[in-house]
Amino acid sequence: MKSEIYNNVKMPKLGLGTWQLKDSACQDMVLYALENTVCRHIDTAQAYGNEAQVGAAIEKSSVARDDIFLTTKVWMENFKADDVIPSIEKSLEKLKTDYCDLILVHWPDKDIPFDETLGALKKAQEQGKTRLIGISNYTTDQVEKVRGDLGYDVAVNQCEYHPFLDQSVLIDQARKHGMIFTAYSPIAQGKVMSDETLKKIAEEHNKTPVQVTLRWLYQQERVVAIPRSSSKGHITDNFDIFDFELSQGEMDRIFDLGKKEMRIVDPDFAPEWDVAA
Ligand SMILES: NC(=O)c1ccc[n+]([C@@H]2O[C@H](COP(=O)([O-])OP(=O)(O)OC[C@H]3O[C@@H](n4cnc5c(N)ncnc54)[C@H](OP(=O)(O)O)[C@@H]3O)[C@@H](O)[C@H]2O)c1
Fold first, then answer.
1. Are 277 and 169 in contact (CB under 8 A)?
2. Atom of ligand 1 nearest to the CA of 190
3. Which of 19, 65, 111, 209 has the most CB atoms less than 10 A away?
């Protein structure tokens, strides 16, 4: 599998999301993915309440820690300067590791200045607690502020992205800065399965609409995707997308679906999202 690279750190282009995976099911799925597929990239968060299970699976697996790209995210209750590093120390303890590969600020905060949270996150990076730092759910203006005015070397912006949501403005910005754009909810929480265009393209390749969607994301420069599944069969399928290729025409037919502008994750504390150009 290909990786995207930031500051010499390799981030595999396809990983396993773990939101809503709880308890032993989380541990089982992470372990399954590591042992039975080419998955070497796991995405968790303080808010998911499953860092301990992710850590247990990594510890149990036969894959070396250094061969896994591990992301966690600092949750909003820990955004104050004095809370960031202690919360990361707790996360690392649960994850049973000395470091993460990437730690993200989970959402932009309306009250606590970005500088406060990112300043502490940068300190954690200097202490070796994470190789890369990043942000999640930030708009283009907020990314400019963080990289430009504030000067933080954020590697990643992780946002919702799937065939039904055009995120070209944010992706172009990430490319311009040499950043990586991680697509969350990459299969629109399963909604891609019933789309006629995706079904047709899938039939032509003897694949499923989910696999076509993940291949479409995989073929996009600087884009990484982290589908979640609680099913071993689905995890096997999701990491079986390397034996076919979509033509430019097929890619474009899928890009066209972005006009639907279907946003799934939109809590009341979300920022004012960018709109497609
Ligand atoms: N930064 C953020 O604010 C944020 C927000 C949302 C998500 N995320 C991250 O992104 C990850 C993925 O997003 P998501 O969990 O929202 O949704 P998703 O990955 O787009 O979709 C997950 C859903 O798709 C189904 N599915 C997975 N593989 C399938 C397959 N091969 N065939 C049919 N159905 C399949 C799953 O059901 P089964 O369990 O039955 O397979 C599940 O219901 C999260 O887990 C999390 O790590 C981050």
1. yes
2. 24
3. 209
